[in-house]
Structures are given as C-alpha cells and as structure tokens.
C-alpha cells in the first residue's frame, strides 16, 4: 500500500477495447442479466482476449501514475451482473422487468427463485490475475448486497431485507477468498442506497457489515449517482439522500461522486471516522481536465478532510469513456495529486 498522502485510485472499471466488446451495444444499458452478445470473440478465445485487455488496463493505470489499481473490470458486462447471476437461487435466463434506477424505463433483472448461495468463486481468477500482473497496491470490487437486492425480482424471500442478508453472506464468502488471493483493498459498490434511502435506512448498513465480516484489509463502500454516459447530469440530484448513515459501517473508506454534481463537500463532516475516496474527475466532461482544475478539486476536499484521509479518484467507473480520454484524465489526476502533495508535505 502507498505510504504517501493523497494516494490515487480508480473506482473500478476502465474502458473495454472496441475489439473486445460491442461498445455501441454496451452504451445503451447497464445490464442486470447477462449480455453475452456484447462480446466480439467466440467463447474459445474470450478468456485469452479478456486477459490481454486486462493487462492493457493495468498498464494504462500504472503509466498514468495510479497508486492503487484494479483489473479494470474488463471481464464484466456490468459492475454487478456477473457476480449476481453466478449465485444459486438466481434465474438470469428468464428475467423479470422492473423500473430502472432512472425511474423512467423498464429494465430486465434476474429473478430470485430459491435460497441465494455462492456456488463457488466468481472473481477469484480476476484477483489472482491482477496480483500476478502488478506490483502496485491492488483493489478488487464487488457489488454490494443492498444494490443487488434492488436489481432483482424477489420471488422467494419474505422481504427484501432477508434477500439482502442472504446476498451479504455470498458477498462475504467471495470477499474472504479475494483477500486470501492478495487483494490489498476490497470495495463494495452500493449506488442504490441513495436510490431507495428509506429501505437503505432499514438494513443497508447491517447488510454491508455482514458482507465485510472478517475482512482485515482496507475496505471501501462506493456510491454515486450513475454512469455519466447513461444518467445525464440534468437527472442527478445535488446531494446524497443516504450518506451520513455510512459512518456506521465497518468500511474504512467511503467513495463518493463529487466533481460532476459539484457536491457541497460540507457533507463530509458526517463521515468523520472514514477516509474519503473523493471524486475529482468529471466523467460527463469529454475534455481532459487540466492538472490545475483537478488540483483545485483536491484542495477543496482538503478544506473538509485531512490529507491523511483523502484519496483522489474519478467520480465513477470509466468503462463508458473513450480509452484515450480515460487515460488522460487519470494522468491529470495523478499529476494534480502530486502537485498538491508537494504543496502540503
């Protein structure tokens, strides 16, 4: 793990190459069920191709100067569907339809038809491959139990809380294996806690804590307002409806989107026990921000969070961006963090 202040990281995903996925198809949806047609290569060549693209993603992050890298989530069709549909009790082949997170469209989701259990490792190979291919601190991400419970149609459990707790057990079993495989940081993606804050207040913290039980490496809970390419800025609220409650989780860090929505960072006072992964890259802006622009966003964060508690990051995953843009933004962020680090060290 980096020992300097203001270590940089990514939320998780990095752009998948056009030769690997049909990006035009991907741009229309964040899939909850499997989207096998997205992949351009036949099954017999797909794993090798995904390995190659993963190495490209890792090297880009390293060249950009990122301190805590991921595998770019290259093998995933979305941040959540690959893990969710690999569980027992989940029927992803005969989906149900629910209202999408944006509230104005219907989206197909897996159905919960029996006891949810982890059949076996899902992301273990991903973590092992990442660990073999970088000497930097390595982070792996998992979909959070609350979010997965909201991205499925419950046809088995008595209520959504019971479903979320079953999912939390499955996530925990996976996280323990990922920790053994060399993960330096484990992150849960929980963007839906702000989408349904009333339910989240009932059991999201309980489910998150169950999912992180026994994890001794640093842990993160990430929440955002949605991919900039899918959820326009005009549809994004100005603040989080579920944030202060996350101070009660066992997670070490909370990751928030702040650059695009121009979030009032005064909200960070409610997370006094946590390190903050602060979104300082606006992923809705097709331009690569200047080093000075990103440095100003970091300095703004430092008005509310001490340097030892601030981790600069993009607002969200970068999978929907052009690769050259994603790389340029990461390089600007790394250079900006180094600039501010020099000012305060």
Overview of the structural elements:
- The chain has a single domain (23-343), classed as Alpha-Beta Barrel (TIM Barrel), CATH 3.20.20.210.
- The protein starts with 22 loop residues before the first helix and ends with a helix.
- α6 (160-180) packs parallel to α7 (197-211).
- The chain has 345 residues and is α/β, with parallel strands linked by helices.
- It has a seven-stranded parallel sheet. It has a three-stranded mixed sheet with strand order 2-3-5, covered by helices on one side.
- The radius of gyration is 19 Å and the shape is globular.
- It is 33% helix and 18% strand.
- β6 (185-189), α7 (197-211) and β7 form a beta-alpha-beta unit.
- The protein has nine helices and ten strands.
Low-confidence segments: none
User: In terms of quaternary structure, what is this?
Assistant: single chain
Major sheet, described briefly? 7 strands, parallel
Span between termini: 19 Å
The number of domains is 1
Strand content: 15-25%
How many alpha or pi helices? 9
CATH structural architecture: Alpha-Beta Barrel
Mean pLDDT: 95
Radius of gyration over C-alpha positions, nearest whole angstrom: 19 Å
Residue share in helices?
25-40%
Provide the succession of SSEs.
Answer: HHEHEEHEHEHEHEEEHEH
Keywords: Metal-binding, Methyltransferase, Transferase, Zinc
Protein name: 5-methyltetrahydropteroyltriglutamate--homocysteine methyltransferase
Pfam families: Meth_synt_2
Cofactor: Zn(2+)
């Amino acid at each position: 793990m980096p020992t300097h202040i203001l270590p940089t990281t990514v939320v998780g995903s990095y752009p998948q190459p056009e030769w690997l996925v049909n990006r035009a198809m991907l741009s229309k949806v964040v899939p909850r069920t499997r989207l096998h047609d997205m992949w351009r290569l036949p099954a017999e060549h797909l794993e090798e191709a995904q390995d190659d693209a993963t190495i490209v993603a890792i090297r880009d992050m390293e060249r950009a100067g990122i301190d805590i890298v991921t595998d770019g989530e290259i093998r995933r069709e979305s941040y959540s569907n690959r893990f969710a549909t690999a569980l027992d009790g989940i029927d992803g082949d005969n989906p149900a339809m629910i209202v999408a997170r944006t509230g104005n469209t219907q989206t197909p989701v897996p159905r919960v038809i029996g006891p949810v259990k982890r059949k076996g490792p899902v992301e273990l190979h991903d973590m092992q491959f990442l660990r073999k291919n970088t000497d930097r601190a390595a982070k792996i991400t998992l979909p959070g139990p609350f979010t997965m419970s909201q991205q499925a149609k419950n046809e088995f459990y008595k209520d959504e809380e019971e479903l979320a707790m079953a999912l939390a057990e499955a996530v925990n079993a996976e996280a323990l294996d990922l920790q053994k495989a060399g993960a330096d940081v484990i992150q849960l993606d929980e963007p839906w806690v702000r989408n349904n804050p009333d339910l989240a207040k009932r059991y999201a913290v309980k489910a998150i804590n169950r999912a992180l039980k026994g994890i001794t490496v640093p842990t993160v809970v990430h929440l955002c307002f949605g991919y900039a390419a899918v959820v326009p800025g005009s549809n994004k609220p100005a603040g989080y409806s579920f944030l202060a409650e996350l101070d009660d989780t066992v997670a070490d860090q909370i990751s928030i989107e702040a650059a695009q929505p121009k979030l009032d960072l005064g909200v960070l006072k409610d997370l006094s026990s946590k390190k903050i992964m602060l979104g300082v890259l606006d992923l809705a802006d097709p331009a690569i921000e200047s080093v000075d622009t990103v440095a100003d966003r970091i300095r703004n964060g430092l008005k509310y969070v001490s340097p030892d508690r601030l981790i600069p990051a993009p607002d969200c995953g970068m999978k929907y961006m052009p690769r050259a843009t994603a790389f340029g933004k990461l390089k600007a962020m790394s250079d900006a963090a180094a600039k501010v680090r020099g000012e305060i060290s």
